[in-house]
Design a protein that fits this description.
The protein has 248 residues and is mainly α. It has 12 helices and no strands.
């Protein structure tokens, strides 16, 4: 099994994969950030990161942007009759499992970096070069969503936790797409289903006026405020912290 995973990693890490990955990671910084800079009023670096993701195509096209990474690999090999050469050399179920594992891991890593590298640049590198303009005279921070509770503890922890959250969702959507390519004969339909679900559910939740439960707000919660359970959890941490201070 380890040998199959190693072989799949070598097959996946090709020039095309790196071009797509680097595009997803750096294009928002190269294209969207210069357009935003000077067009919006920012008070904190965390606001810039949230606005960068909001103004990019990532929230709207999230599942479909990840499909070219590796989700269609099984469908391509099935179409080219490559699986006939695999069966005599390996157990097909192990081969399919290895491809699915590599697909999920690589998608997670790329999506994590897609969120975390812009965060590192905006939060830690830009203050050294002063590229982004901040308004400091009238400081009026606005909540950027449910994950800001984590940012109140540690900004770096916020970047890691939120990047991990988006990475998990990306891996989940691409795992579903990969499984559909195994179950369905039509590659296009199989790879389009996660995006179709993403698009339709965003529309349905908007019509029902429960946008906070939509897929896009679940993964990119910058347009909703902290939910009651998260607020209660934050209050719980504050009580514990105050109790510890009293004991000391």
């Amino acid at each position: 099994m380890k040998h199959l995973v190693f072989i799949e990693c070598k097959k996946a890490l090709n020039k095309r994969f790196f071009i797509i990955s680097l595009s997803l990671i750096f294009l928002p910084l190269i294209i969207i950030l210069p357009i935003m800079n000077g067009s919006y009023v920012f008070h904190r670096a965390i606001d810039v990161h949230a606005q960068l993701l909001t103004n990019s195509p990532i929230p709207l096209l999230f599942p479909i942007l990840l499909v070219p990474l590796y989700a269609g690999s099984y469908a391509n090999e099935k179409k080219d009759n490559y699986l006939q050469y695999v069966k005599p050399r390996a157990i097909l179920s192990d081969y399919v499992l290895a491809k699915g594992f590599v697909n999920a891991v690589l998608t997670f890593v790329v999506v994590f970096l897609m969120i975390f590298i812009p965060f590192l640049f905006i939060q830690y590198i830009d203050p050294l070069i002063g590229y982004i303009h901040y308004e400091t005279e009238f400081l009026n921070p606005v909540s950027i969503g449910t994950f800001e509770v984590v940012a109140q503890k540690s900004v770096l922890l916020y970047g890691i936790v939120y990047s991990f959250w988006v990475g998990i969702n990306g891996a989940l959507y691409m795992t579903i797409a990969y499984l559909l390519t195994i179950c369905l004969k039509n590659k296009f339909v199989a790879l389009s289903m996660p995006f179709l679900w993403w698009f339709v559910m965003n529309f349905v939740t908007a019509v029902l006026r429960i946008e906070r439960f939509s897929p896009v707000c679940t993964v990119f919660p910058f347009s909703i405020t902290a939910q009651p359970r998260i607020i209660c959890l934050d209050s719980f941490f504050k009580v514990i912290s105050n109790s510890n201070n009293d004991l000391l």
